[in-house]
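Input structure tokens:
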């Protein structure tokens, strides 16, 4: 059987993509001389590319089990080169937020050689995250470990917040969870304490950290560059 040129070229492209850790959608001719169509299981009109475990980072923009969830992500990230994947056919890593089941599909940009670039984006965009293409990873990247301490803002107790501020407060609260979990601290921070608001419980836990661990006396409850440095040096060495 003679294979036509219209089939050979897409197959070569698919093989080249696979060698780079990207499983590209295979393009085939429906029939000799017919139009080529790209695999797009949700028919959302963006590239469908599964990813292998290469150790790279991806910027997770959204996820879900339906076309509507992926389309919503595309609409709300007009400046990103959005692609999507099937979690069942991609790297077995952490694709969803804590305590959530992995979705069927993930919309993303990347992959990137290191988490630094997507983390810089992540800290300006609500609800986005950074995942590592490493098998068995059970959490998202802690972006405070990928950015210079000088880039981390001063956080102060407040009953109010903004979308931009809430991103950093959640990063702080998630860091406190990981530190307390690693140390086995009784009554430490837990997932339910992540509010995006620098509330009384967060202030109290920051003061305790300053007094007991960081040797910052008197404690202020304010997360300045010295407190960020004390948090990240302990958090990041455990990751």
């Amino acid at each position: 059987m003679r294979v036509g040129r219209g089939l050979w070229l897409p197959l070569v492209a698919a093989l080249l993509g696979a060698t780079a850790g990207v499983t590209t959608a295979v393009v085939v001719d429906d029939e000799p001389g017919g139009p080529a169509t790209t695999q797009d299981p949700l028919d959302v009109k963006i590239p469908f590319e599964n990813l292998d475990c290469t150790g790279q980072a991806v910027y997770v923009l959204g996820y879900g089990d339906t076309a509507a969830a992926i389309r919503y992500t595309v609409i709300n990230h007009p400046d990103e080169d959005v692609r999507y994947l099937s979690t069942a056919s991609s790297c077995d890593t952490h694709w969803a937020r804590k305590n959530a089941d992995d979705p069927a599909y993930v919309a993303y940009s990347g992959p990137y050689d290191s988490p630094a670039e997507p983390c810089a984006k992540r800290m300006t965009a609500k609800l986005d995250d950074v995942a590592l293409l490493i098998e068995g990873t059970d959490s998202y990247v802690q972006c405070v470990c990928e950015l210079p301490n000088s880039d981390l803002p001063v956080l102060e107790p407040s009953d109010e917040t903004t979308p931009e501020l809430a991103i950093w407060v959640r990063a702080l609260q998630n860091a406190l969870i990981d530190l307390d979990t690693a140390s086995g601290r009784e009554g430490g921070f837990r997932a339910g304490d992540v509010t995006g608001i620098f509330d009384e419980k967060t202030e109290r836990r920051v003061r305790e950290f300053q007094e007991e661990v960081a040797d910052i006396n008197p404690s202020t409850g304010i997360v300045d560059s010295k407190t960020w440095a004390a948090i990240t040096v302990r958090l990041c060495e455990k990751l």
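The chain has three domains: 1-39, 41-141, 146-236. Residues 1-20, 22-37 have pLDDT under 50 and may be disordered.
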